[in-house]
Design brief:
The complex is a heterodimer of chains A (347) and B (296).
Chain A (H helix, E strand, L loop, with lengths): L6 E10 L6 E11 L4 E5 L6 H9 L6 E6 L2 E2 L10 E4 L11 H11 L4 H14 L15 H13 L5 E5 L7 H18 L2 E6 L2 H7 L2 E6 L2 E6 L1 H6 L4 H6 L4 E8 L2 E4 L2 E4 L7 E7 L5 E15 L3 E7 L5 E7 L10 E5 L6 E4 L2
Parallel strand pairs in A: 3-8, 3-9, 6-7, 7-8
Antiparallel strand pairs in A: 1-2, 1-4, 4-5, 9-10, 11-12, 11-14, 12-13, 14-19, 15-16, 15-18, 16-17
Chain B lengths: L3 H34 L3 E2 L5 E2 L5 H7 E3 L6 E3 L1 H33 L3 H12 L6 H12 L4 H8 L11 H25 L4 H8 L4 H12 L1 H16 L3 H7 L6 H9 L5 H31 L2
Antiparallel strand pairs in B: 1-2, 3-4
Helix pairs in contact in B: 1-13, 2-13, 3-7, 3-10, 5-11, 7-10, 7-11, 8-9, 10-13, 12-13
The chains are: A alpha+beta (347), B mainly alpha (296).
């Protein structure tokens, strides 16, 4: 559709307020978003992801740093002069206009001829499968339909980058799943760079080419969903994406010591006090370390066992449901496979 | 025995009866009396007499020469009509231009501050209209405050009093709150996220105002315009105090017929005409706005 545009954020900081009450919403963030990719800003509320999105849209200007679109520095451009459009969390559809006029709004403001607008609006409405609703008012649409109109409206002016601010958060679970697939399809078909903001890690993992995990105004890790899940860079990422066990340990050579037990890592890692992170589904039954069962929960497709290691640290494991149920109070032997262990710095 | 359906209908009529009675007595009844008077003959000193005639309605538009009985257009009446319409339209426009930023300012204050601003807007209502209008007279008269201040800067003096401009200033002052309050209510409900959405979709500030803000707060604009235009057209005190004897508006002219002029039928005909003019103006105005919206 149009040539893919790389988005560069260089050392962007954003401070709200002054003096002792100042809040640093964004702290020296740098990232590169490859043209034509589906890029997600993931993090809990207050992590700065929405601020970063607003900087990209132009609603805020960075206190420091630059934003580049391809070769162009757009840091100082107002929103109406950036080839970037936004799908808002609240949709923010114009209540006084029909669906078709909402979708055509951007092109009309650009002064395109009416014929061209009509043609483009029809294309966009068919892209989001809302052709039959062109003459409806926004108030007559369901949440999912409004969502599609908001998408069509933002895509109609052929932006070089599309920003999506938690667009699925107002939808129910089933609709959200459908829209995830739909968004991914739209991104592929249009080839436009999507920058998607969410606090939902599952949403981020399913849809993204790359994810930037953010916390406290900083980027914690950037990588593919697989990288982020399997190789979390720090404790925050490991805890925020999926579930993880965090076990204090001591590394000597290629062996990690947890109290009296030893786990073979078979690779070089920083020596001394560390935290081992391991996903519940990676913990196996074995004989490397004994644990006391605290609670067993039947999940249908799996069995979740909460246990305690000899040093008192809690560990959660997920076993196949066919397994015999270990009773609370009994002791079981566990194995922590070296390749599944992520070594993180101790706090 | 009556069936339940009929009984329910009767009951609902019985319940509506007091309201209907009030409507007939307070609204429709007086209008009918005025309409009937407009088709009667003036009494010797005041009041009306039979026979029924359309003479008053002819007088509205045509005047009879006192010497040779020839008929000609009643230029004086038309001038008064035209001045009334012109001043009312201008008053509505001025109060809109001043009222929109005012209402926007109040609606965008923190909630606890808004009550204070609205309170300030209503303070002029605490004083009688006549007193306030005389106060304006004091300010704009030849030796008044305005000309004193202009004099300090070596400008002026300007002779505003007893001109259309004076009437316009007075009416804009008196009716401004009527425009601000309904527009405030509309802007208060306005979702400011729409501003960002429009701005994001390449609208300039002017386009945001024209294509998003004004259409969305339209109900408030319509309500405010009606609340200003209708009483302006029938204004009596302000043109009397600030316009003097010769810059009459239709309200003053009607009063004249019932008072010194001793021509009640003509006054009644003018009143009916005013009512029709207001109804037509409102119909045209509302339809024009609806049309403007359809064309985006």
């Amino acid at each position: 559709m149009n040539e893919a545009t790389t988005v560069l954020v260089e050392g962007a900081s954003k401070q709200f307020g002054r003096g002792p009450n100042a809040i640093l919403a964004l702290d020296d963030v740098s990232l590169s978003i490859e043209g034509g990719s589906f890029f997600t800003l993931l993090g809990p509320s207050g992590c700065g992801k929405t601020t970063l999105l607003r900087l990209l849209a132009g609603f805020e200007t960075p206190t420091r740093g630059r934003i580049l679109l391809g070769q162009d520095d757009v840091t100082a451009l107002p929103p109406n002069r950036r080839p970037i459009n936004t799908v808002f969390q609240s949709y923010a559809l114009f209540p006084h206009l029909s669906v078709a006029r909402n979708v055509g709004f951007g092109l009309k403001m650009l002064g395109r001829p009416a014929g061209q607008i009509a043609e483009r609006v029809a294309r966009m409405l068919s892209l989001v499968r809302m052709e039959s609703f062109a003459d409806r008012l926004v108030a007559q649409l369901s949440g999912g339909q409004q969502q599609r109109v908001a998408l069509a409206r933002a895509l109609a002016p052929e932006p070089r980058v599309l920003l999506l601010d938690e667009p699925l958060s107002a939808l129910d679970l089933k609709l959200r799943k459908e829209m995830q697939v739909e968004l991914k399809r739209l991104q592929r078909e249009t080839g436009i760079t999507f920058v998607f903001v969410t606090h939902d890690q599952e949403e981020a993992l399913t849809m993204s080419d790359r994810i930037a995990v953010m916390s406290a105004g900083r980027v914690q890790q950037i990588g593919s969903p697989r990288d982020i899940y399997a190789r979390p860079a720090n404790r925050f990422v490991a805890g925020f994406i999926g579930e993880s066990n965090f076990l204090p340990a001591d590394i000597q050579g290629k062996i990690a010591r947890l109290g009296n037990a030893e786990v073979r890592l078979d690779r070089d890692e920083p020596q001394g006090r560390v935290i081992l992170a391991i996903r519940p589904e990676e913990v196996r039954l074995g004989d490397a370390i004994t644990a006391r069962v605290v609670e067993t929960i039947y999940l249908g497709n799996a069995l979740q066992v909460m246990a305690e290691l000899p040093d008192g640290s809690p560990i959660v494991l997920r076993l196949p449901a066919a397994q015999a149920v270990p009773l609370p109070g009994t002791r079981i032997g566990l194995d922590l496979p070296g390749p599944a262990i992520q070594v993180l710095e101790a706090d | 025995m009556t069936d339940p359906q009929t009984k329910a209908t009767l009951n609902s009529w019985a319940l509506a009866a007091p309201a209907l009675a009030l409507l007939v007595m307070a609204s429709i009844g007086p209008l009918l009396i005025v309409l009937v008077y407009s088709f009667m003959t003036p009494g010797d000193y005041s009041g009306v007499e039979r026979p029924f005639t359309t003479q008053a309605w002819q007088q509205v538009f045509l005047s009879r020469d006192i010497f040779d009985d020839t008929l000609s257009w009643a230029d004086a009446h038309l001038t008064i009509f035209w001045r009334s319409v012109k001043l009312s339209v201008l008053t509505t426009a001025i109060t809109f231009l001043l009222g929109l930023p005012t209402a926007w300012f109040i609606a965008t204050r923190p909630p606890q501050r808004r009550a204070m601003w609205l309170f300030l807007i209503t303070i002029p209502f605490w004083t009688n209209l006549l007193i306030r209008t005389i106060a304006i007279n004091e300010i704009i008269r030849s030796e008044g405050l305005l000309n004193q201040v202009l004099g300090w800067f070596g400008a002026g003096p300007v002779n505003l009093l007893y001109t259309d401009t004076a009437v316009l200033i007075g009416m804009a002052y008196v009716y401004l709150p009527m425009m601000v309050l309904p527009m405030y209510a509309a802007i208060d409900r306005f979702d400011t996220r729409l501003l960002e959405a429009a701005y994001d979709l390449f609208a300039s500030r002017w386009q945001v105002l024209r294509h998003v803000v004004l259409p969305v707060i339209r109900p408030g604009i319509v309500a405010g315009s009606i609340l200003v235009f209708v009483p302006s057209l029938g204004a009596y005190v302000t043109p009397r105090v600030l316009g003097g004897g010769k810059n009459m508006m239709i309200g003053n002219f009607i009063e004249l017929q019932f008072g010194q002029g001793q021509n009640w039928p003509l006054g009644a005909a003018l009143a009916v005409l005013l009512l029709i003019a207001v109804a037509l103006a409102l119909a045209v105005y509302v339809r024009a706005l609806a049309g403007a919206e359809r064309n985006g």
